[in-house]
Recover the amino acids of this structure.
């Protein structure tokens, strides 16, 4: 019943959201008037589309409809996928996204792990000023591989760090930035479902480091 309900919601919202975006784009092209209002409509339609997609993913995972299937995965391949995903955003903000070269393997579901890491990288880019830097480093431990996502952005207040993984939590300091407060919650759910965990170190005004620990792939 839950699976059917989620599927129906996703299906029923897909067409009206697509229509909003299409007609908004048509209005933008054919009319020289009310461009500010049209841009607002398009922006809100994009936000609604993102929110619906995020809620569907979250609901499916929490209901067990989507399960992670862990297997031997190369970190390099996942990082290349993330780099490709954010090429446009980093160019728009003139941000340097640096990836380390690694041949390490972890045991995870590559699709869902890219989703989790991507949510963290997206935040790093969003909260880093134009011309800033975002780095991804990898380090091997006895039982885990640590993937550090490091930025020199606005940072997080110490008292807020325990709250940032809460569902729909958004700090008042970033209220002017787009977002709905689902990305980090979903990232933590995905990593924990794969027997991993996330740690955060940050200082307000000095940037943040999100450390994702994933089980190391056992050698045959």
């Amino acid at each position: 019943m839950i699976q059917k309900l989620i599927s129906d919601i996703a299906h029923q919202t897909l067409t009206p959201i697509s229509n909003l975006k299409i007609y908004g784009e048509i209005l933008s092209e054919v009319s020289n008037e009310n461009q500010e209002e049209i841009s607002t409509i398009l922006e809100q339609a994009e936000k609604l589309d993102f929110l619906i997609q995020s809620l569907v993913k979250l609901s499916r995972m929490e209901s067990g409809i989507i399960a992670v299937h862990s297997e031997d995965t190369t970190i390099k391949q996942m990082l290349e996928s993330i780099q490709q995903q954010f090429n446009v955003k980093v160019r728009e903000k003139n941000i340097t996204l640096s990836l380390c070269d690694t041949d390490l393997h972890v045991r995870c579901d590559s699709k869902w792990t890219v989703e989790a890491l991507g949510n963290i990288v997206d935040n790093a880019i969003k909260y880093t000023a134009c011309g800033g830097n975002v780095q991804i480093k990898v380090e091997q431990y006895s039982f885990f591989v640590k993937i550090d996502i490091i930025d020199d952005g606005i940072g997080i207040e110490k008292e807020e760090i325990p709250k940032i993984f809460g569902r729909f939590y958004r700090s008042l300091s970033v209220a002017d930035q787009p977002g709905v407060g689902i990305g980090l919650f979903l990232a933590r759910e995905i990593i924990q479902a794969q027997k991993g965990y996330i740690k955060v170190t940050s200082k307000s005004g000095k940037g943040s480091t999100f450390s994702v620990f994933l089980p190391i792939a056992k050698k045959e």
Q: What stands out?
A: The first helix runs from residue 2 to 30.
